[in-house]
Amino acid sequence: MKSIKYLPLALFLSGCAMFRVDPCNTSESISYITGVEDKIVCFLTVDSYDLNYKDKPLIEIYGKLSFPDEEKNLYNAIILSHGSGGLRRYHKKYVDLLNEAGYVVFQLDHYMGRGIKYDKTFSKVSGITFMNDAYKALNIIKTHPKINKIGYIGWSQGGVGPILSHFDEIVNKVSKVKFDATIAIYPYCGFTLNKDSATSTPLLMITGGSDDLTPEQACKNIYDKFSDEKNIIEHISIAGARHGFDNPFLYFGITFDNLPSLNIINDECTLTINDDGSIATITGRIVNGPSESERLLKECSTPGVHVKYSRHATETTNTAIINFLEKSF
Prior knowledge:
Elements: H1 2-14, E1 39-46, E2 58-66, E3 75-81, H2 91-100, E4 104-109, H3 127-141, E5 147-155, H4 160-164, H5 168-174, E6 181-185, E7 203-208, H6 217-226, E8 233-238, E9 254-261, E10 271-273, E11 279-281, H7 290-299, E12 302-307, H8 311-328
Parallel strand pairs: 3-4, 3-5, 5-6, 6-7, 7-8
Antiparallel strand pairs: 1-2, 2-4, 9-12, 10-11
């Protein structure tokens, strides 16, 4: 009965993904790229739950690099970071959208190299794990002689990195180079920093007004706290849109009685980053791995969510992405 119980959740998270084999089993990791052909790129990244890298191992993951049809002397590029459901079919539509707009795309798979298919606990890895991978990818893409500016787009849990990349003090813990623009799509926004934190990377957050998995109020709180005349941060709320609004597999909508609605916002449930790179709540509770994260998730949520595709929200998001990147680059 257990397999039947989790079948709808597995389908939601997988989006009917095809069986895949890790391409890095037969390819060596690289630290630089050249050429303008589509290819699989295997590279080393730090396998860390937070930004404290002491005694953290390196692992090999991959991304799929794709170029637009029109060859150029100089390209801009976008790194894509999936959510807790892993790399899915609907992400390919974003690759096509961005390639058609002239961008090089580097679509990451955070899970394959870690032996994860999907994460029904939302805790096996953290959003910062994804962020660490994205910055390793950024440093590799930066080596390409024909790539200029680079953006970063993430969904849901993968949207944590794009938001944190807005803040210089966080980026300085991760990398010597920064993204030129970042976009978070229905992201988890349950964290904050000091009001006077310096920022330099333009950020766009796109949320669903009816999202009950990662409710948009936490994202509104970030926008309200850090938006001012010196700070390039934008927020688009799409009325009626739910989590997964760009996944056509959810066309008719699915209700999950046991999935967590992260709707509790207080100091016990809001995260921040300590000076040593560890993740902690505002009250000082350290979240250093899956077990602690899963416990906190249960304390900071109520059960029951509804996910659903929306053509309007998808089209709005596509337009917003292209417009924001053109303006930021």
